[in-house]
Amino acid sequence: MKKKDNRSLTPQAFGLFKGVYSRxxxxxxxxxxYVSRVAQGERRSQRVEDALKAELRRIQKELRVVxxxxxxxxxxxxxxxxxxxxxxxxxxTIAQILDEQGFKTQVAYGGREAIRLALQDCPDTxxxxxxxxxxxxxxxxxxxxxxxPEARILLFSGQAVTNELLKTAxxxxxxxxxxxxxxxxxxxxxxxxxxxSDAPSVLLPS
Length: 206
Known about the structure:
By secondary structure, the protein is α/β, with parallel strands linked by helices.
């Protein structure tokens, strides 16, 4: 397993969180597109960068008080989550958030690495991006489901093409939950704390 980056949230992860760009734009009285370009490194503005970092610190603070541990966690079993995303900063950021919330995480930066880790130890939950090179998240989820049928699969994506991929998988007998990207951190944590019996078998975007 590749070592996770335990530093504070990185600029490349700004777009993971819903509403960050809009909130900073309103605070500073600038266009949201300008904030987005600064976050992605296309423009430089110390004022915007400082505001983005402050917003992420606020999100981190909120996450530390989201909910209480589940019974399984309280009894000494940390829910294991395999986070899969080819964008390393995104994967590391999600894992860092979940670690702080009491989950036991592993990180894979692609589908093949995720399958290798699942072969070694089946996770309770797989959280995977859909659109990845070489092996997409749905192909990865199908392979892991065959090896670890008890593992819960949560996919996330911001692309409309995901809908068709999920429909194809559903026609083949696979049903996976889908979370929209960008992700609300408290929604993500809440979803992971749901029991598998509470969660819908499949959630397709409209």
